[in-house]
């Protein structure tokens, strides 16, 4: 077996589907991409403008490991403007995407062998990163009836089987697009504080909500660790830039880790990210497209008989139960790609057990993409035979 024991983690299946879709495209096929969770739009013009100016005027050397002070201040302002929450910029750490924020925070918080609870289904990389770092990842089962969110009762049951050191919670969530209610977030946060459990709140899909706005865990706990990113709402996946908010006493811990692991986050991306905050009009226009796509996809899936899913409140995903059509989502997704050129991700990426009954569709493309995908699915004998 090549590689260390700790490196034996599974692949991020969505990237595998992306590779298969790319192979088909290289062979001349026209694929509608609903597999990867990324906007098709570029960074807002204000971000690109800032980056272009920096290319000519700035040596673009390393920054401080915690990031550019002006960007940390701008993020602090963002908490005041959007959530009416005051956050000292000294607690904000700029990272290479939220992915690096996970590595830094998990290393700062947990020792090997500690248990970090993860709601299932969930974003697969939490499980894979934690497991590579030596943590155990007990899974909290959820379901569409509970909008795919855990409760304090679930945590108590899990805590009874062995002390928990952490909980990672995302709202809006990937793959389901569902959100936790403010009251349940408060209950969970209190339970975590009372039981010495670190709450890591992944807020990467904040801003992408269609009914209620999302509540930051910072509004209910000073001890919560916040992970966020410019990848989704700010439409900057490839710029690899995100942030962490940590309690005061962890700042220097994370700083030492960040210095050693990454030196500093990418300078040009930090400059662009600061510019992105002025691009709100463009970003809200993107969100309006997602909202229209969501309505179209939800209605289209219902027409196809694929109506078994919890209403998606945010992000840009619908997590659909395909049990009435197939017993194996991985094969279903593969055939769908091969026979209709619509790429979507099988649920096993997000839930190794129950996920084989689910497909995740991402609606972050154009509205024309969603129309095209629905037309193809309507004409697919596998589905049309039943409608
Ligand atoms: C819930 C969630 N968290 C984190 C990430 C990682 O994002 P990035 O590293 O681009 O910030 C993703 C990417 O899809 C995600 O869905």
Give an account of the 3D structure.
The chain is α/β, with parallel strands linked by helices. It has 2 domains: 142 residues, Aspartate Aminotransferase, domain 2 (3-Layer(aba) Sandwich); 235 residues, 3-Layer(aba) Sandwich (Aspartate Aminotransferase, domain 2). Helices cover 41% and strands 12% of the residues. The chain contains 13 helices and 12 strands. The strands form 3 sheets. The protein has a 7-stranded mixed β-sheet, with helices on both faces. Strands 9-12-11 form a 3-stranded antiparallel β-sheet. Helix 2 runs antiparallel to helix 9, helix 3 packs parallel to helix 9 and helix 4 packs across helix 5. It is globular. The model has no long low-confidence stretch (mean pLDDT 95). Pyridoxal-5'-phosphate binds next to helix 4.
Short description:
With 387 residues, the protein is α/β, with parallel strands linked by helices. Helix content is 41%, strand content 12%. The termini are far apart.
């Amino acid at each position: 077996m090549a590689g260390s024991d700790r490196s034996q983690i599974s692949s991020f299946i969505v990237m595998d589907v992306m590779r298969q879709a790319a192979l088909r495209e290289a062979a001349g096929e026209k694929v509608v991409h609903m597999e990867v969770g990324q906007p098709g739009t570029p960074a807002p013009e204000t971000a690109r403008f800032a980056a272009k100016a920096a290319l000519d005027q700035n040596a673009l050397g390393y920054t401080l490991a915690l990031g550019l002070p002006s960007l940390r201040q701008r993020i602090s302002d963002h908490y005041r403007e959007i959530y009416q929450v005051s956050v000292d910029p000294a607690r904000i750490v700029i990272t290479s995407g939220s992915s690096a924020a996970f590595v830094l925070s998990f290393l700062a918080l947990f020792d090997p062998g500690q248990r970090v609870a993860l709601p299932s289904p969930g974003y697969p990389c939490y499980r894979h990163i934690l497991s590579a770092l030596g943590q155990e990842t007990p899974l909290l089962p959820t379901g569409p009836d509970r909008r795919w969110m855990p409760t304090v009762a679930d945590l108590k049951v899990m805590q009874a089987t062995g002390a928990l050191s952490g909980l990672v919670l995302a709202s809006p969530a990937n793959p389901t697009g569902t959100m936790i209610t403010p009251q349940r977030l408060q209950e969970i946060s209190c339970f975590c504080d009372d039981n010495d459990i670190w709450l890591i709140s992944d807020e990467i899909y904040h801003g992408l909500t269609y009914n209620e706005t999302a509540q930051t865990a910072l509004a209910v706990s000073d001890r919560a660790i916040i992970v966020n990113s410019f990848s989704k709402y700010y439409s900057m996946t490839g710029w690899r830039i995100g942030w962490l908010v940590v309690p005061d006493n962890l700042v220097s811990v994370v700083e030492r880790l960040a210095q050693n692991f990454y030196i500093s986050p990418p300078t040009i991306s930090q400059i662009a990210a600061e510019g992105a905050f002025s691009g709100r009009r463009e970003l809200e226009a993107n969100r309006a497209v997602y909202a229209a796509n969501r309505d179209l996809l939800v209605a289209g899936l219902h027409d196809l008989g694929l109506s078994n899913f919890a209403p998606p409140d945010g992000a840009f995903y619908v997590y659909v139960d395909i049990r009435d059509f197939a017993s194996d989502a991985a094969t279903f997704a593969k055939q769908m790609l091969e026979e209709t050129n619509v790429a979507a991700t099988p649920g096993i990426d997000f839930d190794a057990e129950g996920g084989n009954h689910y497909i995740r569709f991402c609606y972050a493309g154009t509205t024309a993409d969603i129309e095209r995908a629905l037309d193809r699915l309507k004409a697919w004998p596998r589905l049309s035979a039943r409608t």
